[in-house]
TrEMBL record:
Lineage: superkingdom: Bacteria
Name of the protein: FAD/FMN-containing dehydrogenase
Entry's Gene Ontology BP terms: respiratory electron transport chain
Keyword presence, Flavoprotein: yes
Length: 472
Protein backbone atom coordinates (compact mmCIF):
# COMPACT_ATOMS: atom_id res chain seq x y z
CA UNK A 1 0.00 0.00 0.00
CA UNK A 2 1.25 3.49 -0.88
CA UNK A 3 2.56 5.09 2.32
CA UNK A 4 2.08 8.51 0.70
CA UNK A 5 -1.63 8.37 1.48
CA UNK A 6 -0.95 9.00 5.16
CA UNK A 7 1.97 11.37 4.49
CA UNK A 8 0.93 15.02 4.05
CA UNK A 9 3.99 15.76 1.91
CA UNK A 10 3.02 15.98 -1.73
CA UNK A 11 -0.76 16.02 -1.17
CA UNK A 12 -1.17 19.29 -3.07
CA UNK A 13 0.75 17.87 -6.03
CA UNK A 14 -1.33 14.69 -6.05
CA UNK A 15 -4.55 16.68 -5.88
CA UNK A 16 -3.41 18.83 -8.81
CA UNK A 17 -2.60 15.64 -10.73
CA UNK A 18 -6.04 14.26 -10.00
CA UNK A 19 -7.85 17.44 -11.04
CA UNK A 20 -5.86 17.63 -14.25
CA UNK A 21 -6.83 14.05 -15.14
CA UNK A 22 -10.49 14.47 -14.22
CA UNK A 23 -12.74 13.97 -17.27
CA UNK A 24 -15.28 16.63 -18.25
CA UNK A 25 -18.02 14.25 -17.09
CA UNK A 26 -17.10 14.88 -13.46
CA UNK A 27 -15.83 18.46 -13.43
CA UNK A 28 -19.19 20.02 -12.62
CA UNK A 29 -19.35 17.93 -9.43
CA UNK A 30 -16.56 20.02 -7.87
CA UNK A 31 -17.95 22.41 -5.23
CA UNK A 32 -15.98 25.47 -4.14
CA UNK A 33 -15.91 26.77 -1.46
CA UNK A 34 -16.59 23.81 0.81
CA UNK A 35 -19.75 24.42 2.90
CA UNK A 36 -19.32 24.18 6.69
CA UNK A 37 -21.69 21.20 6.91
CA UNK A 38 -19.22 19.01 5.00
CA UNK A 39 -16.43 19.53 7.51
CA UNK A 40 -17.71 16.98 10.01
CA UNK A 41 -20.35 14.43 10.92
CA UNK A 42 -22.25 14.38 14.23
CA UNK A 43 -19.26 13.07 16.15
CA UNK A 44 -17.63 15.21 18.82
CA UNK A 45 -14.41 15.38 16.80
CA UNK A 46 -13.13 18.78 15.63
CA UNK A 47 -14.06 19.72 12.05
CA UNK A 48 -11.58 19.16 9.22
CA UNK A 49 -11.53 20.98 5.88
CA UNK A 50 -10.97 18.70 2.88
CA UNK A 51 -8.74 19.75 0.02
CA UNK A 52 -11.78 19.59 -2.27
CA UNK A 53 -15.46 18.60 -2.21
CA UNK A 54 -17.26 16.72 -4.96
CA UNK A 55 -21.05 16.35 -5.10
CA UNK A 56 -21.75 13.96 -7.99
CA UNK A 57 -25.21 13.30 -9.41
CA UNK A 58 -24.62 9.86 -10.94
CA UNK A 59 -22.70 6.63 -10.47
CA UNK A 60 -20.73 7.48 -13.62
CA UNK A 61 -19.52 10.72 -12.04
CA UNK A 62 -18.60 8.86 -8.86
CA UNK A 63 -16.66 6.35 -10.93
CA UNK A 64 -14.74 9.06 -12.79
CA UNK A 65 -13.84 10.85 -9.55
CA UNK A 66 -12.67 7.66 -7.84
CA UNK A 67 -10.66 6.52 -10.85
CA UNK A 68 -8.81 9.85 -10.99
CA UNK A 69 -8.27 9.88 -7.22
CA UNK A 70 -6.98 6.31 -7.25
CA UNK A 71 -4.51 7.02 -10.05
CA UNK A 72 -3.17 10.05 -8.18
CA UNK A 73 -3.30 8.37 -4.73
CA UNK A 74 -5.65 11.04 -3.31
CA UNK A 75 -7.65 9.95 -0.24
CA UNK A 76 -11.45 10.01 -0.60
CA UNK A 77 -13.97 10.21 2.26
CA UNK A 78 -17.55 9.33 1.25
CA UNK A 79 -20.32 11.36 2.89
CA UNK A 80 -24.07 10.79 3.18
CA UNK A 81 -26.33 12.67 5.55
CA UNK A 82 -23.42 13.28 7.96
CA UNK A 83 -25.43 12.03 10.95
CA UNK A 84 -22.88 9.39 12.01
CA UNK A 85 -21.55 9.56 15.55
CA UNK A 86 -18.16 7.87 15.12
CA UNK A 87 -16.26 10.14 12.71
CA UNK A 88 -16.67 7.85 9.71
CA UNK A 89 -17.69 10.69 7.36
CA UNK A 90 -15.32 13.30 8.77
CA UNK A 91 -12.89 14.52 6.06
CA UNK A 92 -9.14 14.06 6.35
CA UNK A 93 -6.49 16.69 5.68
CA UNK A 94 -5.24 16.65 2.10
CA UNK A 95 -8.06 14.39 0.90
CA UNK A 96 -11.31 15.02 -0.89
CA UNK A 97 -14.84 14.65 0.45
CA UNK A 98 -17.27 12.83 -1.84
CA UNK A 99 -20.79 13.81 -0.83
CA UNK A 100 -23.78 11.97 -2.30
CA UNK A 101 -26.20 14.67 -1.14
CA UNK A 102 -27.27 15.41 -4.74
CA UNK A 103 -27.83 11.77 -5.62
CA UNK A 104 -31.39 11.72 -4.33
CA UNK A 105 -34.55 10.22 -5.69
CA UNK A 106 -36.77 7.18 -5.78
CA UNK A 107 -36.37 5.45 -9.11
CA UNK A 108 -38.98 2.72 -8.78
CA UNK A 109 -41.51 1.20 -6.39
CA UNK A 110 -42.33 -2.35 -7.46
CA UNK A 111 -45.48 -3.30 -5.56
CA UNK A 112 -45.46 -6.87 -6.87
CA UNK A 113 -41.95 -7.48 -5.54
CA UNK A 114 -42.48 -5.13 -2.56
CA UNK A 115 -39.23 -3.31 -3.37
CA UNK A 116 -38.05 0.24 -3.83
CA UNK A 117 -35.01 1.29 -5.87
CA UNK A 118 -33.41 4.51 -4.62
CA UNK A 119 -30.32 6.64 -5.05
CA UNK A 120 -27.93 6.53 -2.11
CA UNK A 121 -28.30 10.15 -1.04
CA UNK A 122 -32.06 9.91 -0.53
CA UNK A 123 -33.14 10.86 3.02
CA UNK A 124 -34.67 8.05 5.06
CA UNK A 125 -37.82 10.04 5.83
CA UNK A 126 -38.53 10.59 2.13
CA UNK A 127 -38.32 6.82 1.59
CA UNK A 128 -40.68 6.17 4.49
CA UNK A 129 -43.23 8.64 3.11
CA UNK A 130 -43.03 7.30 -0.43
CA UNK A 131 -43.63 3.76 0.79
CA UNK A 132 -46.59 4.87 2.94
CA UNK A 133 -48.20 6.62 -0.03
CA UNK A 134 -48.34 3.25 -1.79
CA UNK A 135 -49.69 1.37 1.21
CA UNK A 136 -46.27 -0.06 2.00
CA UNK A 137 -43.81 0.29 4.85
CA UNK A 138 -40.04 0.73 5.04
CA UNK A 139 -39.23 -0.46 8.52
CA UNK A 140 -35.93 1.26 9.31
CA UNK A 141 -36.53 4.16 11.66
CA UNK A 142 -34.00 6.44 13.38
CA UNK A 143 -34.21 9.69 15.27
CA UNK A 144 -32.20 11.29 12.46
CA UNK A 145 -34.72 10.14 9.83
CA UNK A 146 -35.08 13.62 8.34
CA UNK A 147 -31.34 14.09 7.82
CA UNK A 148 -29.69 10.70 7.38
CA UNK A 149 -29.16 9.29 3.88
CA UNK A 150 -30.05 5.72 2.95
CA UNK A 151 -26.57 5.03 1.56
CA UNK A 152 -25.06 5.95 4.91
CA UNK A 153 -27.67 3.79 6.64
CA UNK A 154 -26.44 0.85 4.57
CA UNK A 155 -22.77 1.75 4.94
CA UNK A 156 -23.10 1.67 8.73
CA UNK A 157 -25.63 -1.21 8.84
CA UNK A 158 -28.08 0.97 10.76
CA UNK A 159 -30.48 -0.66 13.18
CA UNK A 160 -32.95 1.64 14.86
CA UNK A 161 -36.11 1.02 16.80
CA UNK A 162 -37.72 -2.01 15.14
CA UNK A 163 -34.86 -4.45 14.62
CA UNK A 164 -36.57 -7.00 16.86
CA UNK A 165 -39.18 -7.52 14.11
CA UNK A 166 -37.66 -6.43 10.82
CA UNK A 167 -33.90 -6.74 11.29
CA UNK A 168 -31.07 -4.33 10.54
CA UNK A 169 -30.13 -2.78 7.20
CA UNK A 170 -28.48 -6.05 6.19
CA UNK A 171 -31.97 -7.57 6.22
CA UNK A 172 -33.59 -4.70 4.33
CA UNK A 173 -31.29 -4.44 1.29
CA UNK A 174 -31.87 -6.84 -1.59
CA UNK A 175 -29.50 -5.27 -4.09
CA UNK A 176 -26.87 -2.57 -4.43
CA UNK A 177 -24.88 -0.64 -6.99
CA UNK A 178 -21.38 0.11 -5.72
CA UNK A 179 -18.39 1.95 -7.19
CA UNK A 180 -15.03 0.43 -6.29
CA UNK A 181 -11.96 2.55 -5.46
CA UNK A 182 -10.58 2.08 -9.00
CA UNK A 183 -13.82 3.41 -10.55
CA UNK A 184 -15.40 0.08 -11.45
CA UNK A 185 -19.20 0.17 -11.19
CA UNK A 186 -20.53 -3.07 -9.73
CA UNK A 187 -24.21 -3.62 -10.53
CA UNK A 188 -25.78 -6.00 -8.00
CA UNK A 189 -29.26 -4.46 -8.12
CA UNK A 190 -31.21 -7.66 -7.60
CA UNK A 191 -34.80 -7.66 -6.35
CA UNK A 192 -34.65 -11.31 -5.40
CA UNK A 193 -34.97 -12.55 -1.84
CA UNK A 194 -33.73 -15.98 -2.87
CA UNK A 195 -30.54 -15.44 -4.84
CA UNK A 196 -28.12 -18.20 -3.92
CA UNK A 197 -25.57 -17.58 -6.68
CA UNK A 198 -22.16 -17.53 -5.09
CA UNK A 199 -20.78 -14.77 -2.89
CA UNK A 200 -23.30 -12.20 -1.66
CA UNK A 201 -21.65 -9.08 -3.04
CA UNK A 202 -24.03 -6.53 -1.48
CA UNK A 203 -23.26 -7.75 2.05
CA UNK A 204 -19.58 -7.00 1.55
CA UNK A 205 -20.35 -3.28 1.48
CA UNK A 206 -23.16 -3.05 4.03
CA UNK A 207 -21.50 -2.08 7.29
CA UNK A 208 -18.13 -1.34 5.65
CA UNK A 209 -18.49 2.42 6.36
CA UNK A 210 -17.29 3.48 2.93
CA UNK A 211 -13.90 1.77 3.24
CA UNK A 212 -14.42 -0.78 0.44
CA UNK A 213 -16.64 1.00 -2.07
CA UNK A 214 -19.16 3.81 -2.50
CA UNK A 215 -22.79 2.71 -2.50
CA UNK A 216 -24.71 4.64 -5.19
CA UNK A 217 -28.04 2.77 -5.49
CA UNK A 218 -30.01 0.35 -3.35
CA UNK A 219 -32.94 -2.00 -3.77
CA UNK A 220 -34.85 -1.95 -0.50
CA UNK A 221 -37.23 -4.53 0.91
CA UNK A 222 -40.68 -3.19 1.79
CA UNK A 223 -43.42 -4.62 3.98
CA UNK A 224 -47.20 -4.13 4.08
CA UNK A 225 -48.18 -0.98 5.95
CA UNK A 226 -49.33 -1.81 9.48
CA UNK A 227 -53.09 -1.82 9.87
CA UNK A 228 -52.92 -0.86 13.54
CA UNK A 229 -50.33 0.04 16.16
CA UNK A 230 -50.59 -0.51 19.91
CA UNK A 231 -48.16 0.48 22.64
CA UNK A 232 -47.83 0.38 26.40
CA UNK A 233 -45.43 1.84 28.93
CA UNK A 234 -44.95 -0.76 31.67
CA UNK A 235 -43.43 -0.41 35.13
CA UNK A 236 -41.59 -3.44 36.55
CA UNK A 237 -39.97 -4.26 39.88
CA UNK A 238 -36.67 -5.75 38.68
CA UNK A 239 -34.69 -6.75 35.61
CA UNK A 240 -35.71 -10.41 35.82
CA UNK A 241 -39.27 -9.23 35.27
CA UNK A 242 -38.10 -7.29 32.19
CA UNK A 243 -36.71 -10.51 30.70
CA UNK A 244 -39.93 -12.34 31.63
CA UNK A 245 -41.95 -9.62 29.90
CA UNK A 246 -39.83 -9.91 26.76
CA UNK A 247 -40.27 -13.67 26.76
CA UNK A 248 -44.03 -13.27 27.19
CA UNK A 249 -44.24 -10.65 24.43
CA UNK A 250 -42.43 -12.90 21.98
CA UNK A 251 -44.68 -15.82 22.85
CA UNK A 252 -48.07 -14.05 22.95
CA UNK A 253 -47.61 -11.26 20.40
CA UNK A 254 -45.53 -13.28 17.96
CA UNK A 255 -44.59 -11.45 14.75
CA UNK A 256 -46.63 -8.36 15.68
CA UNK A 257 -44.05 -7.40 18.34
CA UNK A 258 -42.23 -4.47 16.72
CA UNK A 259 -40.34 -2.78 19.57
CA UNK A 260 -39.24 -3.55 23.10
CA UNK A 261 -37.43 -0.63 24.69
CA UNK A 262 -36.13 -0.86 28.27
CA UNK A 263 -35.22 2.18 30.33
CA UNK A 264 -33.33 2.09 33.63
CA UNK A 265 -34.50 4.48 36.38
CA UNK A 266 -31.52 6.82 35.90
CA UNK A 267 -32.51 7.32 32.25
CA UNK A 268 -36.21 7.65 33.08
CA UNK A 269 -35.52 10.43 35.58
CA UNK A 270 -33.48 12.46 33.11
CA UNK A 271 -35.90 11.83 30.22
CA UNK A 272 -38.98 12.92 32.16
CA UNK A 273 -37.20 16.17 33.06
CA UNK A 274 -36.96 17.18 29.38
CA UNK A 275 -39.40 20.03 28.63
CA UNK A 276 -42.50 18.73 26.86
CA UNK A 277 -42.04 15.12 27.98
CA UNK A 278 -44.85 13.74 30.14
CA UNK A 279 -44.40 10.78 32.49
CA UNK A 280 -47.32 8.45 31.64
CA UNK A 281 -46.97 6.48 34.89
CA UNK A 282 -48.07 7.64 38.35
CA UNK A 283 -45.11 6.13 40.20
CA UNK A 284 -41.43 5.38 39.52
CA UNK A 285 -40.34 1.80 39.01
CA UNK A 286 -37.08 -0.12 39.03
CA UNK A 287 -37.42 -0.59 35.27
CA UNK A 288 -39.69 0.85 32.60
CA UNK A 289 -40.43 -0.79 29.26
CA UNK A 290 -42.05 0.54 26.08
CA UNK A 291 -43.71 -2.27 24.11
CA UNK A 292 -45.07 -1.71 20.61
CA UNK A 293 -47.02 -4.13 18.43
CA UNK A 294 -47.93 -3.50 14.79
CA UNK A 295 -50.81 -5.61 13.49
CA UNK A 296 -52.93 -5.95 10.39
CA UNK A 297 -56.48 -5.97 11.83
CA UNK A 298 -57.62 -3.85 14.77
CA UNK A 299 -60.45 -6.26 15.58
CA UNK A 300 -57.97 -9.10 16.06
CA UNK A 301 -54.73 -7.45 17.11
CA UNK A 302 -56.21 -4.96 19.58
CA UNK A 303 -57.75 -7.67 21.81
CA UNK A 304 -54.60 -9.76 21.43
CA UNK A 305 -52.46 -6.90 22.76
CA UNK A 306 -54.82 -6.34 25.70
CA UNK A 307 -54.93 -10.07 26.49
CA UNK A 308 -51.14 -10.14 26.57
CA UNK A 309 -50.97 -7.23 29.03
CA UNK A 310 -53.67 -8.77 31.23
CA UNK A 311 -51.74 -12.04 31.34
CA UNK A 312 -48.57 -10.21 32.34
CA UNK A 313 -50.45 -8.45 35.16
CA UNK A 314 -51.94 -11.72 36.36
CA UNK A 315 -48.51 -13.37 36.41
CA UNK A 316 -47.13 -10.53 38.53
CA UNK A 317 -44.68 -9.40 35.88
CA UNK A 318 -46.10 -5.90 35.30
CA UNK A 319 -46.67 -3.58 38.27
CA UNK A 320 -48.28 -0.72 36.38
CA UNK A 321 -48.94 0.26 32.77
CA UNK A 322 -50.16 3.10 30.59
CA UNK A 323 -51.84 1.77 27.45
CA UNK A 324 -52.24 3.70 24.20
CA UNK A 325 -55.74 4.65 23.12
CA UNK A 326 -54.67 6.38 19.91
CA UNK A 327 -51.70 6.95 17.64
CA UNK A 328 -51.03 10.23 19.47
CA UNK A 329 -50.58 8.18 22.65
CA UNK A 330 -48.13 5.92 20.84
CA UNK A 331 -46.17 8.97 19.72
CA UNK A 332 -46.21 10.39 23.26
CA UNK A 333 -44.83 7.13 24.65
CA UNK A 334 -42.04 7.21 22.09
CA UNK A 335 -41.39 10.80 23.13
CA UNK A 336 -40.09 9.57 26.49
CA UNK A 337 -37.84 7.01 24.82
CA UNK A 338 -36.58 9.53 22.25
CA UNK A 339 -36.02 12.32 24.80
CA UNK A 340 -32.32 11.50 24.67
CA UNK A 341 -32.15 13.65 21.53
CA UNK A 342 -32.65 16.69 23.80
CA UNK A 343 -30.13 15.68 26.48
CA UNK A 344 -27.48 18.04 25.15
CA UNK A 345 -29.77 20.86 26.21
CA UNK A 346 -30.72 19.44 29.60
CA UNK A 347 -27.52 17.60 30.55
CA UNK A 348 -24.94 19.57 28.64
CA UNK A 349 -22.01 17.86 26.87
CA UNK A 350 -21.92 14.08 27.21
CA UNK A 351 -20.67 10.99 25.42
CA UNK A 352 -23.08 8.51 23.79
CA UNK A 353 -22.35 4.80 23.51
CA UNK A 354 -24.13 1.94 21.81
CA UNK A 355 -23.02 -1.54 22.73
CA UNK A 356 -24.16 -5.09 22.07
CA UNK A 357 -24.69 -7.56 24.91
CA UNK A 358 -26.67 -10.72 25.61
CA UNK A 359 -30.05 -9.58 26.90
CA UNK A 360 -29.76 -11.50 30.16
CA UNK A 361 -26.51 -9.74 31.07
CA UNK A 362 -27.58 -6.16 30.47
CA UNK A 363 -28.54 -5.27 34.01
CA UNK A 364 -25.30 -6.72 35.37
CA UNK A 365 -23.40 -4.74 32.76
CA UNK A 366 -25.26 -1.54 33.66
CA UNK A 367 -24.36 -1.93 37.33
CA UNK A 368 -20.71 -2.71 36.54
CA UNK A 369 -20.37 0.07 33.99
CA UNK A 370 -22.01 2.64 36.26
CA UNK A 371 -19.45 1.78 38.93
CA UNK A 372 -16.56 1.80 36.43
CA UNK A 373 -17.50 5.27 35.15
CA UNK A 374 -17.79 6.65 38.68
CA UNK A 375 -14.44 5.13 39.64
CA UNK A 376 -12.58 6.19 36.50
CA UNK A 377 -13.73 9.81 36.56
CA UNK A 378 -14.57 11.68 39.79
CA UNK A 379 -18.18 12.74 39.58
CA UNK A 380 -18.79 10.58 36.50
CA UNK A 381 -22.43 9.71 35.82
CA UNK A 382 -24.12 7.39 33.34
CA UNK A 383 -27.67 6.43 32.30
CA UNK A 384 -28.88 3.30 30.47
CA UNK A 385 -31.60 2.45 27.95
CA UNK A 386 -31.95 0.50 24.74
CA UNK A 387 -33.56 -1.91 22.28
CA UNK A 388 -32.80 -4.85 24.53
CA UNK A 389 -34.90 -7.30 22.54
CA UNK A 390 -32.18 -7.28 19.89
CA UNK A 391 -29.25 -7.10 22.34
CA UNK A 392 -28.56 -3.38 21.93
CA UNK A 393 -27.94 -1.23 25.00
CA UNK A 394 -27.35 2.53 24.81
CA UNK A 395 -25.75 4.59 27.53
CA UNK A 396 -24.73 8.17 28.09
CA UNK A 397 -21.79 9.12 30.31
CA UNK A 398 -20.65 12.55 31.47
CA UNK A 399 -19.18 14.60 34.28
CA UNK A 400 -21.55 17.40 35.28
CA UNK A 401 -19.99 20.80 34.70
CA UNK A 402 -16.74 19.47 33.24
CA UNK A 403 -15.38 21.32 30.21
CA UNK A 404 -14.07 19.63 28.24
CA UNK A 405 -15.56 16.24 29.06
CA UNK A 406 -12.96 13.53 29.90
CA UNK A 407 -13.88 11.53 26.82
CA UNK A 408 -10.93 9.15 26.74
CA UNK A 409 -11.30 8.15 30.39
CA UNK A 410 -15.02 7.54 29.88
CA UNK A 411 -14.34 5.48 26.75
CA UNK A 412 -11.80 3.33 28.55
CA UNK A 413 -14.19 2.65 31.44
CA UNK A 414 -17.14 1.78 29.19
CA UNK A 415 -15.32 -0.36 26.63
CA UNK A 416 -13.26 -2.22 29.21
CA UNK A 417 -16.56 -3.23 30.83
CA UNK A 418 -17.99 -4.26 27.46
CA UNK A 419 -14.93 -6.43 26.89
CA UNK A 420 -15.28 -8.04 30.32
CA UNK A 421 -18.88 -9.00 29.47
CA UNK A 422 -17.95 -10.36 26.03
CA UNK A 423 -20.00 -7.73 24.23
CA UNK A 424 -19.67 -5.60 21.11
CA UNK A 425 -18.26 -2.07 21.26
CA UNK A 426 -20.69 -1.06 18.52
CA UNK A 427 -24.17 -2.47 18.06
CA UNK A 428 -25.38 -0.11 15.33
CA UNK A 429 -23.36 3.13 15.13
CA UNK A 430 -20.27 1.70 13.43
CA UNK A 431 -16.57 2.12 14.21
CA UNK A 432 -15.30 5.14 12.26
CA UNK A 433 -12.30 6.58 14.05
CA UNK A 434 -13.67 7.02 17.58
CA UNK A 435 -14.02 3.26 18.24
CA UNK A 436 -11.18 2.05 16.06
CA UNK A 437 -8.74 1.39 18.92
CA UNK A 438 -11.37 -0.71 20.67
CA UNK A 439 -12.29 -2.91 17.70
CA UNK A 440 -10.00 -5.64 18.99
CA UNK A 441 -12.13 -5.80 22.14
CA UNK A 442 -14.91 -7.39 20.09
CA UNK A 443 -13.15 -9.12 17.17
CA UNK A 444 -10.66 -11.97 17.16
CA UNK A 445 -7.17 -11.54 15.64
CA UNK A 446 -8.23 -13.84 12.81
CA UNK A 447 -11.28 -11.71 12.05
CA UNK A 448 -9.21 -8.54 12.03
CA UNK A 449 -6.67 -10.13 9.70
CA UNK A 450 -9.44 -11.17 7.31
CA UNK A 451 -10.81 -7.61 7.33
CA UNK A 452 -7.37 -6.32 6.39
CA UNK A 453 -7.10 -8.83 3.54
CA UNK A 454 -10.47 -7.74 2.13
CA UNK A 455 -9.47 -4.08 2.39
CA UNK A 456 -6.17 -4.69 0.58
CA UNK A 457 -7.89 -6.71 -2.14
CA UNK A 458 -10.49 -4.07 -2.99
CA UNK A 459 -8.50 -0.93 -2.19
CA UNK A 460 -4.80 -1.77 -2.75
CA UNK A 461 -3.83 1.92 -2.82
CA UNK A 462 -5.71 2.67 0.40
CA UNK A 463 -7.52 5.73 -0.93
CA UNK A 464 -11.03 5.04 0.32
CA UNK A 465 -11.80 6.42 3.79
CA UNK A 466 -8.27 5.72 5.06
CA UNK A 467 -7.81 5.57 8.82
CA UNK A 468 -11.43 4.51 9.40
CA UNK A 469 -12.52 1.14 10.86
CA UNK A 470 -9.26 -0.75 10.29
CA UNK A 471 -5.81 -0.14 8.84
CA UNK A 472 -4.80 -2.49 6.05
Amino acid sequence: MDGGISNPAGTAERLAQMLAALPDLARDALVDPVPPRNLNDWSALPPETPAALFCPRSAEQVAAILAAANAARVPVVPQGGLTGLCGGARPIAGGIALSLEKMTGIEEIDEASATMTVLAGTPLELIQRAAAERGLFFSLDLGARGSCAIGGNAGTNAGGNRVIRYGMMRDLVLGAEVVLPDGTIVNALSKLIKNNTGYDVRQLFIGSEGTLGVITRLVLKLHPAPGCTHAAICGLSDYDKVVDLLRGARRKLGPTLSAFEAMWPDYWEVACAVPGVRDPLEARHAHTVLIEAQGTDEAIDGPRFMAFLEAMFEEGIIEDAAISQSLSDVQAFWGVRDACAEFKTTLGPHHAYDVGLPTGQMDGFARACRAAVAEAVPGGRSVYYGHIGDGNLHLLAWVPGAAPQPGEALDEAVYATVRAFGGSVSAEHGIGTTKKKYLEFSRSPEELDLMRRVKRALDPNGILNPGKVIDA
